[in-house]
Amino acid sequence: MAALRAVLFDLDGTLLDTAPDMVGALNKLLSEQQRAPLPYDTVRNLVSHGSSRLVKLGFPDVEPEVFASLQKRYLEIYAGALSLETRLFEGMDGVLQAIESRGLRSGIVTNKPGWLTQPLLEQLGLASRFACVVSGDTVSARKPDAMPMLHAAALAGVPADACLYVGDAERDVQAAHAAGMPALVATYGYLEPDEDWRAWGGDGSIARPTDLLPWLEHSGRA
User: Is 10 among the catalytic positions?
Assistant: First the structure.
């Protein structure tokens, strides 16, 4: 295997804990529509599936035309409050520093659209910390397709097989493997209770961000 030269991360549920603000936006939308808010724990594990899944959870009974309008409003609300409570997961700042100190590059590959991703990173002071940021609309395909992974590797200036990808969804493992990259499952992320992440075929797992560092030590590639 090629020596590891870059670590790429999913955004929501892996790098950043965006659930507080995404759940908050949904509950604000519910309030606007005179519906009761949903408990945080009911919504949290669906955040990685994006706005469509969240709005569907809150409004399971509406017509398609109404749903499209609600999703648009949800995104407006969320865009106006991207970083009220969103933060790096505990320990992730030190992990990013350790990656840099090893001479490795770091990057982001997310299905979140760029018009949300870039402002969020800027508001958190993270925009300059990554060698590449590939959003859901950067290229013509999204995860689980390999295209965004390969594009990220090219932007980082490293071969795809010299990258490691870390994510919290099955599509993350699928996209990484399609691009020839190993994938670690971030089990601290937004996994639904009945999801069997061991069946995804990942190359390992981390229960907290800091678990990535010993994995790098023991992989023999870093």
Answer: yes
